[in-house]
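Hi there,

I know you've been waiting on this one. I reran it after we fixed the sequence typo, so this is the corrected version. Both the input and the resulting structure follow.
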Amino acid sequence: MEGKAIVPRFPRSGRRRRALTMGSSAIQASQIGLVRRPGVLTGSIWKPGILPVILLALCSTTLRAEKLNGLDFFELERIYSLPDANLSTERSREIEEMWAYPENVRRRFDTTFSLERDDRNAYFRRALSIYEKALKEDSQFIQRQKEVRRLLKDNDDPQAFEAKPKRDAIRNSFSYERLKTHLNLAQQYDAVLQLLDSGKAGSVEGAGNRQELYLESLRLSVIHFVAARKYEESLWRLRRYFQLQPNAAQEWPFQYYTAITFSHLLDRARNRPEPVEKQWRLQSLRDRYILNYLRLRYGEDSYRYKTMYEKLRREAGPMHFLKDEPGSTRP
């Protein structure tokens, strides 16, 4: 054994295994846009390449711009300005019927689409089928709500000391069920919108059964997204509704759901918290559409409008639109 060099043998470790699998790891990393630091042979330190960083920055900038443009759209004068002339009684009743929930679920489908089915277009038939399925589930959910409310009001339990815990358990369980069902229904109506937006079922820009189906699905998706507390989703659908319905500003339910959406977005911005400038903008938007809703539904001379106007003016922030009109009673 003399004259033979002794080579120490070290136990195998994860370093060798990492070196052996480095080739496959490099391939996977190149596929997802990552590059290995030069000079590091056995380590596992990876840094993003230049291109992915640029794309990520552009995507984040685009998303921030889209959210900002969502507020910018509702700050346009043509969106929030109301007509000087009052609506006729017939038009007001028609608007209420268009947005009425759950009444429109039971009546609007038959009156709108019973004689206007286009069986030649498979995509339109598919959209109509999804809409019918959603309406059926919507009607079942309305009946389920009535049963639960009737059960919660029933005080004839022979064991009165156990009645309240039972009702509380039912109420809590149904609260979760209600949110889940509203979100599911909103997504089904949204599937109709996506199918019609693809253009394969025909244009929705002109008058006809396709636009009627599109607007009806938009209204119901807004109602259910608000009930499911998905306010960002409802905001973008309200914007789309205004783009297809030029007289949307005259519809007090449109103003109502817009005000509700901005109200919850403002609460969320205050709780997180988000930048103060955004909170001021959301407050101004919320108050503007609250006053629009009250003016359209009850009138500018009504007690509700006047008292709400004074309350909002006292609470107005620095960027509030009422700051520019200290002596006016109109937004």
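Quick highlight: Residues 91-248 form one domain.

Best,
R. S.
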